[in-house]
Design a protein that fits this description.
Mean pLDDT: 93
CATH superfamily: Vaccinia Virus protein VP39
Number of helices: 8
Oligomer: single chain
Largest sheet: 7 strands, mixed
CATH topology: Rossmann fold
Distance between the termini: 46 Å
Length: 232
Amino acid sequence: MTEDLTFNSKMAAVYEKNTRISIPTYNSLFAMIQSYYRVQLGEKAASLLLIGAGGGNELSAWGPSNPGWTFTGVDPSEEMLKIAKHKVVELGLESRVSLIQGTTDDLPKTHLKFDAASCILVLHFIDDVQEKLKLLGSIKDKLKSGAPFILVSAYGNHDESELQARLNVWKSFWIDAGRESSEVDEMVRSAITRLSLLPEKQIEELLAESGFMKITRFYSTGLFAGWICHTE
């Protein structure tokens, strides 16, 4: 058990470090989302659905300072969920967190609808556009009327110079963090070019088609952007 916790701690440390190199404003992003949720949800108790909850960063950022919030997190990765479970125990959030390996389809059919939801750094890993649309639609169906939803994803068109310019900025984050230029170029070839990116306009169209409204981009850093919206 001790070895397992040590392993998860090391995984979490690497994940945390790399994420914050890739997205230097990562902490600020979660603070912004928390402020937005607080305004939208008020002082009442609230249930939040976290898509891609493995890693547990949403839980770390929002759990301790919002005792009236409960969280249901879904993630298909068993290893990432181990990191999240480790953080839940570490923060003493066991009574307010439920973690499910899988997708929104694996949520209990009897579960009440949620007050808010987030999908952070997930959409660009889904290759098929119709699957992206299916995910967004399933999230919308799990939310109460008027509930806020936050989407954060890498975005752009692989064939356009605008993305290449932002990619150069992203590469500089890693070089400034001590990585060799050749290593960063390999990261681009092996990982970034394989991401299933969509232009901002198409992402907003998918959100609207899924039943979300008042869609607004509120965040952008390097390769990534974030949108706020609400269910109808």
